[in-house]
Amino acid sequence: MKVAIIDKKQCVACGCCVNICPKNAIAMFKGKYAVVDEELCVGCGKCSEICPASVINMEVVKND
C-alpha cells in the first residue's frame, strides 16, 4: 500500500494538499507544514500531483 510522505522541511504550507485530499488525511501543523495521517491515507496521489513545491512523495509501506 502507498501513503503520502511529506518533506516537512521543504513544505511551503500552502494547504493545496489539505484541500484536495478526499479522505481528510492531511492537516496543517501549526501553520508551518502539512502532516499525513497514514491510517486515513488511501494512497490516491492527488496531493502529490497538486503540490506546487513537489515535496510529497508516494511511498510503499508495509501492512502489519
Characterization of the model:
By secondary structure, this protein is of the alpha+beta class. It has a single domain, classed as 2-Layer Sandwich (Alpha-Beta Plaits). Helix content is 16%, strand content 28%. The strands form two sheets. It has a two-stranded antiparallel ribbon. The chain has a two-stranded antiparallel sheet with strand order 2-3. A hairpin with a 3-residue loop joins strand 2 (26-29) and strand 3. The radius of gyration is 11 Å and the shape is globular. The N and C termini lie close together (11 Å). The model has no long low-confidence stretch (mean pLDDT 96).
Offer a few descriptive terms.
two-stranded antiparallel sheet
SSE order and pairing:
Elements: E1 2-6, H1 16-20, E2 26-29, E3 33-36, H2 46-50, E4 56-60
Antiparallel strand pairs: 1-4, 2-3
- For the biggest β-sheet, the strand order reads 1-4
Secondary-structure-based class equals alpha+beta
Second rung of CATH, namely the architecture: 2-Layer Sandwich
CATH class: Alpha Beta
Question: Would you kindly provide a brief summary of this structure?
Answer:
The chain is an alpha+beta fold. It has one domain (2-60): Alpha-Beta Plaits (2-Layer Sandwich), CATH 3.30.70. The chain has two helices and four strands.
